[in-house]
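Quick one, probably user error.
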């Protein structure tokens, strides 16, 4: 492996999903020390393409994202000075801000659901919403919209105006209700009964590079077994509301 590249294990909390991507080692960027500083950095890249950003920090642009999942987010984190790395912390630890890219279709609407974090499969019911990794991830989010129409080459896709969002009381109530209902399935070992249709704003879906990736979970009989990892995702109907609020 060339010296300018490193392996990155995707990590989203106490439980790791063991799949690896190869990314260039980014030039050192000091983390922002205020939300104002972070938004100033975002303003400088708004209207630029992913190719321009990648070239500036010396990254090679992959031909597509099929074998490079997460590349766009990792690129922007490196450029903006995200400091969490593999730690179970918000991306910008110093100011407690998580970053999420928002892929947009040709109509300027969210193209797909937004990954939040992995589901902790070994749960026995003690964890509450207030202490959950989902709540921590969504307490304060930097949303960075990016063109995602597949007909546009990756390097030519534009970055939009970013903003920092916090859930309203009503939004958090719905997120908590979804989380409570979904976690009941995990605690009771009924993961196989879960479908992507459950949850108003928040859903659980498989999260792995392939079906061979396994993590430790609990069956309905209370036995430890190996199952495919799952992740929490925000539905596009919710991210559409967030996007509309930003305008």
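Nope, works fine. Designed sequence:
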């Amino acid at each position: 492996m060339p010296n300018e590249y490193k392996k990155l294990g995707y990590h989203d909390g106490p439980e790791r999903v063991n799949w690896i991507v190869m990314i260039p080692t980014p030039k050192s960027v000091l983390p922002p020390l205020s939300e104002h500083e972070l938004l100033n950095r975002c303003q400088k890249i708004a209207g630029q393409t992913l190719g321009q950003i990648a070239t500036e920090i010396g990254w090679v642009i992959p031909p597509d994202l099929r074998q490079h999942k997460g590349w766009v987010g990792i690129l922007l984190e490196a450029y903006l000075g995200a400091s969490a790395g593999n730690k179970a912390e918000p991306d910008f630890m110093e100011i407690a801000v998580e970053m999420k890219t928002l892929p947009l279709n040709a109509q300027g609407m969210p193209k797909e659901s937004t990954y939040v974090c992995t589901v902790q499969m070994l749960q026995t019911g003690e964890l509450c919403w207030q202490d959950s990794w989902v709540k921590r991830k969504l307490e304060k989010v930097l949303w960075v919209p990016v063109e995602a129409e597949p007909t546009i080459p990756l390097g030519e896709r534009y970055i939009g105006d970013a903003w920092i969002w916090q859930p309203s009381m009503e939004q958090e109530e719905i997120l908590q209700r979804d989380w409570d209902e979904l976690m009941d399935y995990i605690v009771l070992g009924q993961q196989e009964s879960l479908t992507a249709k459950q949850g108003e704003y928040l859903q659980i879906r498989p999260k792995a590079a392939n079906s061979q990736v396994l993590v430790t979970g609990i069956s309905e009989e209370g036995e430890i077994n190996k199952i495919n990892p799952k992740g929490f995702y925000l539905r596009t109907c919710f991210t559409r509301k967030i996007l509309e609020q930003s305008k």
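The two ends are 44 Å apart (CA to CA).
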